[in-house]
Amino acid sequence: MTSSPTFSPDPAAEQAAPPPRRFAPLAFARKHRTILFLLLLIAVFGAVNERFLTVRNALNILSEVSIYGIIAVGMTYVILIGGIDVAVGSLLACASLAAAYVVTAVIGPSPASWLIALALSTFIGLAGGYIHGKAVTWLHVPAFIVTLGGMTVWRGATLILNDGGPISGFDAAYRWWGTGDILFVPVPIAVFALVAALGHVVLRYTRYGRQVYAVGGNAEAARLSGVNVDFIVTSVYAVIGALAGLSGFLLSARLGSAEAVAGAGYELRVIASVVIGGASLTGGSGGVGGTILGALLIGVLSNGLVIMHVSSYFQQVVIGLIIVAAVAFDHYARTHKA
Predict the structure, then answer these.
(1) Helices 55-80 and 207-217 sit at what angle, rounded to 10 degrees?
(2) What CATH number is given to the structural domain containing 226?
(3) Which 3 state secondary structure label does DSSP give 129?
(4) Among 83, 87, 173, 321, which is most exposed with the fewest C-beta within 10 angstroms?
(5) Which residues of 311-336 are buried (b: 16+ CB within 10 A; e: fewer)?
(6) In a domain, 26, yes or no
């Protein structure tokens, strides 16, 4: 009678088997903190006021978010290289007001007024951002100082251009860019979605995007590996400038006027969107997807506080505290990894 052979487990195979992964609440919360907080805000505001969860209110939130969200896509690139741009609000106002002045006071009524305004506003923004980038790379002045000066210069130029007054009188084709819709989707939201998608693809799937991450991770190492660091730095400031000009055009079309005070405080919202979305202020870490969630979080928070009749001044306090809390939590989670 033969006995069936017995097989003993291979000790090497047992040692090679990876240990079961433990669920780490802190790591999970850090990775998904923005969307978790966003869902919490939606649930709270929806419970407090039923109007918050209506389709109309959702479109209002997205329309508001789209204006500074477009700039936030550009700010993602800037912060990824370890830079900062606090001039975006002033540049938005200068570009949009200058473009509006040209199409109303210089060219006059024209079927192509919207196209001229769009091109001019975007170009002026791009030129302003290019100047910032060259000041950073050629003069070796810190980006914060350069853009802080730019914030004052562009706002002053805006006030000089039309003596501080607004410019209105746009035709229907111009205003369509701010109030029209494409297949029931408001135009600013559609433009924001297009810019965000393009920004994500370029950042994740192109050589340029990889170089942006490389410069933010270690600029000197990137330079030694053949990356044209000065070009990357200058280009990201030019990109955010162009996006500020684009946002300025959309904002003027939405409001029906270009105003010298437009974009005031956008610096805070744009930077907050990127930081809350998980980007590191030291550079090299972050993405457009997180920035979109950060922008939505700020939009939901602001809208919810308005529905609850909370003062707009208090909203600034709340957003500022959230920025500090987001950075502090990120630092804590990094230094206490499970």
Answers:
(1) 70
(2) 1.10.3470
(3) helix
(4) 321
(5) eeeebeeebeebbeebeeebeebeee
(6) no
Neighbouring residues of 289: CB distance < 8 A, sequence distance ≥ 6 = 200, 277
Q: What is the CA radius of gyration of the chain?
A: 24
Read off the pLDDT of residues 27-71 as tens digits, 9 standing for 90 and up: 666 677 788 888 988 999 999 888 899 999 999 999 999 999 999
What is the distance between the alpha carbons of residues 324 and 311, in angstroms, rounded to a whole number? 21
pTM over 0.85: yes
Residue span of the structural domain in which 266 resides: 35-43+50-335
Of the candidates 89, 86, 83, the one whose C-alpha atom is nearest the C-alpha of residue 148 is: 86
Percent of the chain with pLDDT over 70: 89
User: DSSP letter at 309?
Assistant: T
The candidate with the shortest Cα–Cα distance to 93, out of 235, 241, 292, 237, is 241
| Cβ contact 66:191 at 8 Å | yes
Angle (nearest 5°) at CA 317 between 69 and 93: 40
- Whether 4 maps to a domain, the answer reads no
Cβ within 8 Å of residue 337, ≥6 positions away: 26, 27
Kindly report which listed range (24-38, 80-94, 218-232, 271-285) carries the lowest average pLDDT score: 24-38
